[in-house]
Amino acid sequence: MSWQFEPVGIIHSCFAEKFAIPRQPLLAPAATARLELLPPYHQPEALEGLQGVSHLWLIFVFHAAASGPQHLRVRPPRLGGNQRIGVFASRATHRPNPIGQSVVRLEGIENGQLLLSGVDLLDGTPVLDIKPYVPYADAIDDAINPLAPQPPEAIAVTWTDAAREEAQQHQDRLRQPLVALIEQCLSQDPKPAYQQPAPDREYGVQLWDVNVRWHYPHSDQIRILSVRQAT
Ligand code: SAM
Predict the structure, then answer these.
(1) If you ran DSSP here, which 8-state letter would residue 122 be given?
(2) ipTM tops 0.95
(3) If you measure from the C-alpha of residue 161 to the centroid of ligand 1, how many angstroms do you get, rounded to a whole number?
(4) Using an 8 Å Cβ cutoff, are 55 and 104 in contact?
(5) Lower Cβ count inside 10 Å, N or C end of the chain?
(6) Is CATH 3.20.20.80 correct for 156-229?
């Protein structure tokens, strides 16, 4: 059996690359995106009834996941990258069918496009379906997951004066909550869990059209060095 699907829309998000995207949605509320609906779903009829809905489920394709042989067990970054668990016990992007699902906040509807926040989606992600979040069915008070009992612990993020000033200027230009986005994403500690960063090693990521660079003065602390427009 096989099926073929066509995307109903494309995500335009703050995440220009996979590095530093939070591991799940809603961990970075300042991570915004616009979901461009493709014909015929860009017409108002397809969105009737969404007014007043606060959250949506997005079913999407991990279009930038590495291809390769499928494994029955994976090594999730959350567990430090060493421990293997069954693929169906993980949210890894490398899976039998490269399909992901995320709950995101619906901020508004503008010209047939959905304005979203709290996304964990790479720019360009194809969306296969959109469904309204149904609180009475989707929120389970006594749900348990021993491998992921709580959100990842945040680490401290500090700024140099110059980097904070640069970030504020780009925030004004982009009209996006860039300062909060940088703090929220970096406090998730994007580097691989097994890496012991030397204090003089610099890391970087592109968010929107700016390059953010930082280092680890101590292994549990990030200091942002610069926020410059990508060339
Ligand atoms: N919430 C989704 C789920 O549970 O199916 C995604 C979880 S997955 C662990 C989140 C990671 O997927 C992000 O940190 C990012 O690196 C990666 N990612 C996001 N969009 C992607 C895409 N279009 N292709 C490949 N990887 C993507």
Answers:
(1) B
(2) yes
(3) 32
(4) yes
(5) N
(6) no
